[in-house]
Design brief:
CATH topology of the largest domain in chain A: Sulfite Reductase Hemoprotein, domain 1
Structural class of chain A: alpha+beta
Largest sheet of chain B: 5 strands, antiparallel
Order of helices and strands of chain B: HEEEEHEEHHHEEHHEEHEEHHH
Strand content of chain B: 15-25%
CATH class of the largest domain in chain A: Alpha Beta
Strand order of the largest sheet of chain B: 1-2-3-6-5
Distance between the termini of chain A: 94 Å
Number of domains of chain A: 3
CATH architecture of the largest domain in chain A: 2-Layer Sandwich
Number of helices of chain B: 11
Oligomer: heterodimer
Number of strands of chain B: 12
Strand content of chain A: 5-15%
Shape of chain A: globular
Helix content of chain A: 25-40%
Shape of chain B: globular
Radius of gyration of chain A: 27 Å
Number of helices of chain A: 15
């Protein structure tokens, strides 16, 4: 029976944007009517709505802090969640989440999705996130006894594993890549899958001091946001020249092709002006237009993608492609937000991806050895210094890794690099200099 | 057959990873993998990709709530079965993409999607999220499922997107605008590089549950968790506990993450901060952080009117004033932050001046300002 009274949430059914409240309600109705042998409380969606209404009224959340839940042998993939008013909302008393490792770039066959739905309707709340921030399919809310059942069915019937949570490798993620993007400089989907499979142990069994995220962007546009939110950001790039189709450039100038593939069509910006919109906006001023021909001084190009984004039918990424690898991005907790720092300007990204796997191994060894509890890689890099990090990676310093050289002279020299070392005789000094 | 609780390790399968994406690629995608030449946005939310082979794929992008029921997913499957040979995908920003391999299949798909509405009247599949416009808001769990949330997530997102709905389906902004929401500073949604970020913050130091702390927490971990060293051990009524130096607390909530006996959210103390001007793309300018321009707005369920209003003010000022291709942060940097606060009509207060680790790097160390 419908017991809920949710006047505040009902307000969120209005308006055009898809209403999550309406969606939860339709799931609640479906659970009331279904003849599926539900293994979780029938009223789970009703109680969730009532609980959320209470939060709206109180302006406070009503979930307890943490709680242990998981499957045998794994330390991650399940998030324990308990309601802090279980007597009033018994159907969401325990409401644990499972993270299910998404296939690269979120492509699905409906056959697979329907099996997930069947499983989650019967053994969970019927509510999901498609997808969580890190990338997993989030199965939102089930009871403790169901967790092993769900894992069994996932692995046996759906051939599908859980993702990461806690102090482990979090579920890697990637952009759409070569599947449907002409800018992809390497196969992000395969890189993501290959490294996910390589590091299954690190993903499922927390052995780190804190979380470690890796994400794979196909080009410097960065659609999967790796540079802001992953300890290792693998961002596609190229070394050779941008390919130019001069006839297509002419077509843009003539207004036959629309800039940004037509992405500005909602406003009248006037006719396309290649000088104003491309040449003058190039951050390195390495482009020229003489009215007939577009020139690019590729050696000076920093591959920002602006000209390619603007004229995708005329300009293409180079052919000598790979990835730049950057490390250390994180959100503000604790020492402030960090973007990833360029460490490997260029690496080829081809199966079996041995070079990057070896690099990851070196970094994890160092981080495990030196990192404090709950210290992200980026924080350790700051604490120990970038020079030390380069040493760990076995990479030589390069001006590409910095925005500018240091402005303070406090250089940590290595003793071995200084003639005579640091051990000196004060008596000898006194022979030459009185007190 | 199935899980046997008496024999949990029997036939256990582990470490098989995700399903192989190659099983899930639509045939036209599989065939033209790595061969795409260029793309066009035919209209808001409709993409065309053309391959070297001459083959084309048409994509219809629609927004979705990140929270999705299996009933809704089944409806998505029905649509994909009917129009897309049983294939569908999601984007990083919680949009859904339906792909077809010919233009003839496009119109019926679009019409089918358009007519579907939830019982409450909202659209199930609003088309848009492409080009120089607004796309879906990426967000976190909020009160619906998280214990550290300072604000709700889905509710705020719904309220903001209802108000900005027109810009989801129209490509009339100077550049892409990415709005993100994280319901606490842990930022599992990593909003710190967004054009507009809505962030849940606290303003009160943690309460300490002295009666229970020693049983619920590892005291050394709680002490060590504080980035400003505001927590030290103490004894209260003979029980081991911690005390918090309120003057040093910056309400980050890291202690609560480590120690459940130190809750800090409440109705008056917790609310919304707004940050602007971040970006991730390397296009023209380098990626940059978002900056705090509204230090605090109260939680106002169900529709967070002050938050919605502030976001609108920022977006409208940007849309009116920025140049083509200029991201919000590039616009603010060009016109100067003093002009930003003028044009957006947001009050500037001392709360917006950094006083954390690298504060000095954001102070003005020149005479180059505008009256």
């Amino acid at each position: 029976m419908v017991k809920r009274k949710t006047p505040m949430l009902d307000e969120l059914e209005k308006g055009k944007w898809p209403s999550f409240v309406s969606d939860i309600k339709q799931e609640a109705e479906s659970r009331n009517e279904t003849d599926v042998d539900l293994q979780t409380p029938k009223e789970v969606c009703d109680d969730l709505l009532d609980l959320l209404e209470l939060s709206f009224k109180d302006r406070e959340g009503h979930w307890k802090h943490g709680g242990i839940a998981g499957v045998f042998g794994y330390g991650g993939g399940v998030i324990g969640r308990y309601c802090d008013r279980p007597e009033e909302f018994p159907a969401v008393k325990d409401f644990h989440t499972l993270r299910v490792n998404q296939p690269s770039s979120y492509f699905y066959r409906t056959e697979f999705l329907r099996k997930i739905c069947e499983l989650w309707e019967r053994r969970g709340s019927g509510l999901t996130n498609m997808h969580g921030s890190t990338g997993d399919i989030i199965l939102l809310g089930t009871t403790t006894p169901q967790i092993e059942e769900i894992f069994w069915e996932l692995t046996h019937n759906l051939k599908q594993d859980l993702g990461g949570s806690g102090s482990n490798l979090r579920t890697p993620n990637c952009c759409i890549g070569k599947s449907r993007c002409e800018f992809a400089c390497y196969d992000t989907q395969e890189a993501c899958r290959n490294l996910t499979m390589e590091f299954q142990d690190e993903l499922h069994r927390p052995s780190f001091g804190y979380k470690f995220k890796m994400k794979f962007d196909g080009c410097p546009n960065g659609c999967v946001a790796s540079i802001a939110r992953s300890d290792m950001s693998v961002i596609g790039t190229w070394k050779d020249d941008i390919r130019i189709d001069q006839e297509a450039v002419q077509a843009y100038v003539a207004g036959e092709f629309k800039p940004d593939g037509g992405g500005f069509a909602g406003r009248d910006w006037g006719p396309f002006d290649i000088v104003k919109e491309v040449i003058d906006l190039c951050p390195t001023h390495c482009m020229a237009w003489n009215g007939k021909k577009l020139g690019i001084n590729n050696r000076e190009c920093n591959r920002c993608m602006h000209c390619i984004n603007t004229m995708p039918r005329a300009l293409r990424i180079g052919k000598e492609t790979g990835a730049s690898i950057l490390f250390g991005a994180k959100a503000p907790i604790l020492e402030g937000a960090q973007l990833s720092t360029l460490t490997i300007p260029f690496m080829r990204m081809e199966e079996p991806f041995n070079e990057i796997k070896e690099l990851v191994g070196k970094i994890w060894d160092w981080w495990s050895e030196e990192g404090r509890s709950r210290e992200r890689l980026g924080e350790l890099m700051q604490r120990k210094g970038f020079a030390k990090f380069l040493d760990v990676c076995g990479v030589k310093a390069d001006p590409r890794m910095i925005k500018e050289p240091r402005s303070n002279p406090y250089i940590f020299w290595k003793e071995a690099d200084i003639p005579g070392g640091w051990e000196r005789d004060i008596k000898d000094f006194r022979k030459r200099h009185q007190k | 057959m199935g899980y046997d609780a008496k024999n949990p390790m029997k036939d256990r399968i582990t470490d098989i990873g995700p399903r192989d994406y190659k099983e899930f690629l639509p045939p036209v995608i599989k065939k033209n993998f790595g061969k795409w030449l260029y793309h066009e946005i035919l209209e808001p939310g409709v993409l065309l990709h053309v391959s070297e082979s001459g083959e084309k794929v048409f994509t219809v992008r629609v927004g979705g709530a990140r929270l999705m029921s299996v009933t809704h997913i089944r409806e998505i499957c029905d649509i994909a079965d009917k129009h897309c040979d049983g294939y569908v995908r999601w984007t990083t920003r919680n949009n859904i993409e339906f792909m077809v391999d010919s233009e003839a299949k496009l119109k019926p798909l679009m019409e089918d999607l358009e007519k579907r509405k939830f019982a409450g009247g909202s659209l199930k599949f609003p088309r848009g999220g492409t080009g120089a416009g607004l796309t879906n808001i990426v967000h976190t769990q909020g009160w619906l499922h998280c214990h550290t949330a300072a604000i709700d997530a889905s509710g705020v997102v719904k309220a903001v997107m209802d108000e900005l709905y027109e810009d989801f389906g129209k490509m009339r902004l100077p550049a892409h605008v990415r709005i993100s929401l994280a319901c606490c500073l842990n930022m599992c949604g990593a909003v710190h590089c967004s054009d507009i970020a809505i962030l849940g913050v606290h303003r009160k130091p943690p309460m300490v549950d002295h009666d229970n702390l020693a049983n619920m927490c590892e005291i050394p971990l709680a002490v060590a968790s504080c980035p400003t060293g505001a927590i030290k051990t103490t004894t209260v009524d003979g029980k081991k506990s911690v005390e918090v130096n309120n003057d040093k607390c910056m309400y980050c909530g890291n202690c609560f993450t480590m120690c459940p006996a130190m809750p800090l959210a409440d109705a008056e103390g917790s609310g919304v901060a707004i940050l602007v001007g971040g970006k991730l793309s390397n296009r023209i300018t380098a990626p940059m952080f978002s900056k705090v321009v509204v230090p605090f707005l109260p939680n106002e369920p169900p529709r967070w009117p002050q938050t919605v209003e502030a976001v609108k003010k920022i977006l409208n000022a940007y849309a009116k004033d920025a140049k083509k291709y200029e991201r919000l942060g590039d616009w603010a940097a060009r016109i100067s932050w003093e002009r930003f606060f003028e044009k957006t009509d947001l009050p500037f207060t001392e709360h917006l001046i950094d006083d954390y680790r690298f504060a000095y790097t954001t102070w003005r160390t020149s005479t180059q300002f505008k009256f």
